[in-house]
Amino acid sequence: MADVVVIGAGIVGLACAWAASRDGARVTIVDREFEGDRASHGNAGGIAVTESTPIAVHGMFTKAAKWLIDPLGPLALDWKHVPKALPWFMAFRRASEPARFQAISHALALLNNRVYDDILPMFDDIGASAMLYRRGALTVYETDEAFAADQPEWSFKRELGARWHALNAQQVRECEPSLAHVFRHGVFLDDWSHIGDPRRIVTLLRERVRALGARFVTGFARGIETPGSVLLEDGARVKGRRIVIAAGAWSKALANSIGDNVLLESERGYNATLPKHGVALTREVIFAERKFVATPLDVGLRIGGAAEFAGIDAPPNYRRSDALLALGKRFIPGIDDTDAAKWMGHRPATPDSLPVIGASPRTPSVVYAFGHGHLGLTQSATTAALVADVLANRAPRVPLTPYSIARF
Ligand SMILES: Cc1cc2nc3c(=O)[nH]c(=O)nc-3n(C[C@H](O)[C@H](O)[C@H](O)COP(=O)(O)OP(=O)(O)OC[C@H]3O[C@@H](n4cnc5c(N)ncnc54)[C@H](O)[C@@H]3O)c2cc1C
Questions:
Q1: Ligand 1 pocket, residue 198 CB under 6 Å
Q2: Which of 63-77, 304-318, 335-349 has the lowest mean pLDDT?
Q3: Which end of the chain is more exposed for a tag (fewer CB within 10 A), N or C?
Q4: Domain ranges, residue 200
Q5: Taking every annotated instance into account, which residue ranges of this chain make up the domain FAD dependent oxidoreductase (predicted)?
Q6: Torsion angle (degrees, nearest 10) of CA 173, 174, 177, 179
Q7: pTM greater than 0.90
Q8: Ligand 1 centroid vs 272 CA: distance in angstroms?
């Protein structure tokens, strides 16, 4: 029997397997397809430590109504999916209420402010340090109105620990000369960084976890049979003293199998990656009004964004990748889209933007590590450090109450 069975070999599950193995645990990791595509492969590559406010920002709901009118805008709902997702949307609305917004932000900052403490040793150990580009990031604004409207949030982020400074139009041009000359303001984010290739990080971490002695089992986990047994689709069972659920957007059914309830949606995001882009962007750029980002990865310029709620099984609508690419061409003139690759991935989204980390209140041998939404890469090693604390019965380095599944 393993000491720890981890379900899910995305960036979060692998990081948990890595941390537990380094603590001396015998680890088995289960995934339905170790090489298959997943959110952790195609994300924007941002170590987005500044993002310590929830997605449900007060005042976004009027904007959301406008976004929904545009079928290829930054937010899309499949109306057939809305009844099923209604409790999630109601909880999302509640997360924007001032007191809750503040509490969530402080809990996010507790994680984000220690990201480098945890991720640097992990990257070092897997041989990925040279692929971490600590060049900050740049948020750009086309209008004075949008820049002014965001000031309270920027001030609050500074209180939460984010380092940033405002740039004028000239400074934006000097910072990123490839951008169209339409940006009147910028916010330079000192501590944001990006990686060269999210997929490569997953591969390096997987190889390292294997080298540390973890057993790999290919199979789809249907549920947890307590105590300590994971039932696979083919009827086989994988046994472990502790079980970590890190199955990204698919984690809800596994939590339900031991009677824990959670609100979790797939917030589907899209991108286009341009291997021959031909422009010289230095750092990740966040386009504030248009809600998309461009990251200069080693594998090409990745232009991504969109939040589509259509359930986990709906086919991708790659016209969203086309729409993002069109925005990229408009705001980064001259990019070459030869051999552009389109992609869709499932962000595992909770309504309050907080991940689910910690032991199940019903079945303490089961430990949760999912629901990281937009920040799964960023918070992967920190989540793993906390999960390792729980598995080793150490006091967690951050109090885990805000992330407990009990909040649902
Ligand atoms: C467009 C886009 C851009 C993003 N940009 C960023 C960014 O810049 N920075 C950042 O930090 N985050 C970003 N994210 C979010 C980030 O990618 C995710 O939060 C993160 O990848 C989630 O990792 P995970 O390991 O939880 O899930 P996944 O990567 O989805 O992995 C889950 C794994 O579980 C396996 N699995 C699921 N169910 C089962 C089962 N029942 N049995 C066996 N195996 C199972 C799957 O096969 C998969 O391997 C972005 C996401 C998207 C979509």
A1: no
A2: 63-77
A3: N
A4: 2-407
A5: 3-389
A6: -30
A7: yes
A8: 17
